[in-house]
Design a protein that fits this description.
Radius of gyration: 29 Å
Largest sheet: 5 strands, antiparallel
Number of strands: 17
Structural class: alpha+beta
Helix content: 40-55%
Distance between the termini: 92 Å
Strand content: 5-15%
């Protein structure tokens, strides 16, 4: 009796088996009709290789969990059973084709359809993961296309197979597509398996995110991220040790936000991937797919929660750290009489997706109030940081930010209407000095901001009321636009840019859209220039590739509004990344002349000065940045670094701890400061600084350096092997190798990678001063000197010049 007849005999009169549809490495698939309901179903019978050593009864029990999934993008399991000792399960028959089949057709799948499919798959993962079900075998064959929808099939089946296998059964990869690990704990398809899935390690929902990334890369670019591999072993090795070409390079016209998301999903380290499928859904759903197939961002439906672990641990910053801060830095607790902090305006709905708008309202008020002579306004980063805290009263907020008054309020938009409440509170006694409520059309948001600004100025000090007109007349110079849609997009971009990481690429998209709505919007151009200049750090895009866009956006911004500092900072960073040192310094100085209160300008200028060995000047800039923005971890990282370079290890260590308390996830805090502490002769502190997670390129090279130095040679060697296996086209991979090889005796490799980094136009020169002593093994080499000369640096300035404390 053949398998079809055997199956019909088992199913009896419940189903009429019509024909075999095919199958893959895991199962054979038959089309049948459910007699009672007259509907078509598919019956999947596990193949002999998979069934070997499996408990059919346990398989059926495990499948019941998958059968509980009910979602529009999931093909549900209907029934399960055993046919002559062989497990089977049934699912509804979906008319259409698999994603794999569609990808093979001519013409290829359109961008519009690809993004729609990826969105549906992401929604399915989001739902299933919330129900505790991991797919473990996401691939094009398991995505079915029907009409305009994509459905994911075989949810929970891979888990059921793994759980049903008995111990002691040898397992080998199957070239037909399915793979069972030697540990017997993982089932999947070699071309789509996450690294932790391959080695049989601990797995969670992020294995599905990795597979989604592989599918997304393949469907958007037309090639597998590890194209050229053919055997299961080759795919497995690639997943473990190779890095694919950046999707943005393969598909230059793809939305940067999408490209960045896909590459994050493909990270080897699960901690470097998105935390959940929710982020996949949010990014895809914030993409409007036009009928022409081009991608344009539209209003996202993201709900932002007041998280940020770094903000929570701010409360742990002890009296000692702040006592040190008042001793070394400009005090942030001396309260000026005419000083104010503007907190993010909260939405009065718990499920609001408009958090960005509340922060935008606050940002605009800060900008307007900052133009009022005699009034000091707390920095945006610090004000927003404490504003997300719900455990601080207004008195403590005033103490932390060193301000006499605080502006706070709520904002709600619904049905084309805008409702804003605002109040000004004295931080010394907690009494309200002024409050009001505004109800307007959405388009009147600018007028509301002006009214609030004027009221605040009048309430703060009567003699400032006469100057309020300068703030109130800012509708064309403040926001820079009278177009509500452009303004809304701009606020979204600012919100994401502040959060760095994946938000940088998405922010650039929003700024571009704002410009499209209003080509005279100076601050949108400035935001775009800022976002693009951070692409080399957070989007894996070479600095040279985005320099033209940065320059064009920044210059256009300055043409429209010459008073802005942000575009000048972006231009200065572009010059610095291109090794045009004189031009960079001149632009930094122009930025500070335009806005001496810009913490970002002081921080980036401090980095520039540190690069040239001008440590005392650099110290002053970082100290100023820290005073202007006391809750920003980045300024503290760099201040700690320059203190270490100058020999003040005690204060460097205190500032290092403060930086890590402010933002424990800041990658520079876990790498630069680890190198500094090692350099200072305290290897015992290094392990706690770097943590357990390996950061991305190029910071993983610095991690390898310190791991080797503290004796974790196997982990350091593993990172070096990973870096050696990466393509030379990966941005900053040569810089990462420089640091990794500095931990070894192979100075020839260090110098070769330095030269390669410059040839690839990596921004290695902007990294050379880090942990000065780290370069001692090659400092005397003529090749090292040649590297410095080729980018206009003087090697004599890159030696340790300070042994004592910096000047106060």
């Amino acid at each position: 009796m053949d398998l079809r007849d055997q199956l019909q005999s088992t199913l009896g009169s419940t189903y009429t088996v019509e024909r075999e549809l095919g199958g893959g490495g895991m199962s054979r698939v038959f089309l049948a009709e459910e007699t009672a309901l007259g509907r078509k179903v598919v019956v999947k019978i596990l193949s002999g290789d998979v069934v070997a050593g499996m408990s059919g009864e346990r398989f059926s029990r495990e499948v019941r969990l998958a059968a509980s999934l009910q979602h529009p993008s999931i093909v549900p399991v209907l029934t399960t059973g055993i046919a002559d000792g062989v497990p089977y399960y049934t699912m509804p028959y979906v008319k259409g084709e698999s994603l794999r089949s569609r990808m093979r057709e001519v013409p290829p799948i359109s961008r519009r359809q690809a993004l729609a499919v990826l969105r549906d798959v992401a929604r399915a993962l989001q739902y299933a993961h919330a129900e505790g079900v991991i797919h473990r075998d996401i691939k094009p064959e398991n995505v079915l296309l029907s009409s305009d929808a994509a459905l994911v099939t075989d949810f929970g089946i891979a888990k059921a197979i793994s759980a049903a296998r008995t111990t002691g059964v040898p397992e080998t990869p199957m070239e037909s597509g399915m793979m069972l690990t030697q540990a017997g704990s993982s089932v999947g398809t070699p071309a789509y398996m996450a690294p932790e899935q391959i080695v049989g390690g601990t797995m969670d929902n992020r294995v599905d995110l990795y597979a989604w990334g592989v599918v997304a890369y393949e469907v958007l670019s037309g090639v597998h991220p590890f194209s050229g591999k053919t055997s299961a072993q080759q795919f497995l090795a690639a997943h473990l040790s190779e890095s694919p070409v950046n999707l943005a390079e393969r598909v230059p016209d793809l939305s940067p936000a999408i490209a960045e998301l896909v590459m994050r999903c493909l990270e080897k380290n699960p901690d470097e991937r998105p935390a959940s499928a929710t982020e996949l859904v949010e990014v895809i759903e914030s993409t409007h797919i036009s009928t022409s197939g081009h991608v344009q961002l539209s209003r996202p439906r993201r709900q932002y929660s007041p998280i940020a672990l770094g903000l929570v641990v701010i409360a742990l910053v002890g009296v000692g750290a702040y006592a040190y801060g008042t001793r070394v830095h400009e005090s942030t607790t001396v309260t000026a009489k005419n000083s104010v902090a503007v907190l993010p305006f909260a939405d009065d709905r718990a499920d609001s997706a408009d958090a960005y708008f509340g922060e935008g309202i606050a940002d605009e008020l800060m900008s307007a109030l900052g133009k009022v002579q005699g009034l000091r306004v707390a920095s945006r980063t610090s004000a927003i940081a404490v504003g997300r805290r719900h455990d601080l009263d207004v008195k403590e907020i005033g103490s932390r930010l060193g301000v006499a008054t605080v502006v706070e309020g709520t904002v709600r938009r619904a049905g084309g209407r805008l409702r804003v409440t605002a109040q000004l509170t004295n931080t010394s006694d907690g009494l309200t000095m002024w409050s009001d409520t505004y109800e307007r059309d959405n388009k009147d948001v600018f007028a509301v901001q002006d009214e609030i600004t004027n009221s605040i100025v009048a309430a703060l000090r009567p003699e400032l009321a006469g100057r309020s007109s300068s703030a109130g007349a800012r509708s064309n110079a403040g926001q820079g636009t009278i177009n509500p849609e452009a303004y809304d997009l701009y606020l979204r971009g600012i919100y994401l840019l502040e959060r760095r990481g994946g938000g940088v690429a998405r922010a650039a998209d929003y700024f571009s859209q704002a410009i499209a709505k209003d080509s005279g919007f100076a601050r949108a151009y400035a935001g775009l220039a800022d976002a693009l200049e951070f692409f080399p750090y957070f989007a894996g895009v070479p600095a040279a590739k985005i320099e033209g866009r940065v320059t064009a956006a920044a210059n256009r911004s300055l043409q429209l509004d010459p008073t802005l500092a942000e575009p000048r900072v972006a231009l200065a960073m572009a010059h610095m990344h291109a090794f045009r040192w004189k031009e960079a310094e001149a632009e930094f100085k122009r930025a500070l002349a335009a806005d001496s209160t810009s913490s970002t300008a002081h921080t980036q200028y401090g980095r520039f000065l540190n690069l040239g060995g001008r440590y005392q000047e650099s110290f002053e800039e970082f100290k100023r940045a820290r005073a202007l923005d006391p809750l920003a971890g980045t300024a503290s990282v760099w201040l700690s670094h320059v203190l270490s370079v100058m020999g003040d290890q005690e204060q460097a260590w205190e500032e290092s701890k403060r930086a890590r308390e402010l933002d424990p996830n800041l990658v520079t805090a876990r790498t630069i400061l680890a190198v500094d502490r090692l350099d200072a002769g305290h290897p015992a502190d290094v392990r706690a600084i770097i943590g357990e997670n390996i950061p991305p390129v190029p910071f993983n090279g610095m991690t390898a350096y310190v791991l080797q130095a503290i004796g974790d040679t196997s982990k350091a060697a593993s990172i070096r092997r990973t870096l050696a296996g990466m393509s030379d086209t990966i941005w900053m991979v040569h810089t990462a190798r420089v640091y990794a090889y500095l931990a070894t005796s192979d100075t020839a490799k260090v110098l070769t990678e330095m030269e390669a980094a410059l040839a690839a136009r990596e921004i290695l020169p902007a990294w050379l001063p880090l942990g000065e002593r780290i370069f001692d093994p090659v400092r005397g080499s003529a090749r090292f000197a040649a590297v410095l000369r080729s980018v206009g640096l003087d090697g004599r300035n890159l030696t340790r010049q300070y042994r004592g404390r910096p000047a106060k």
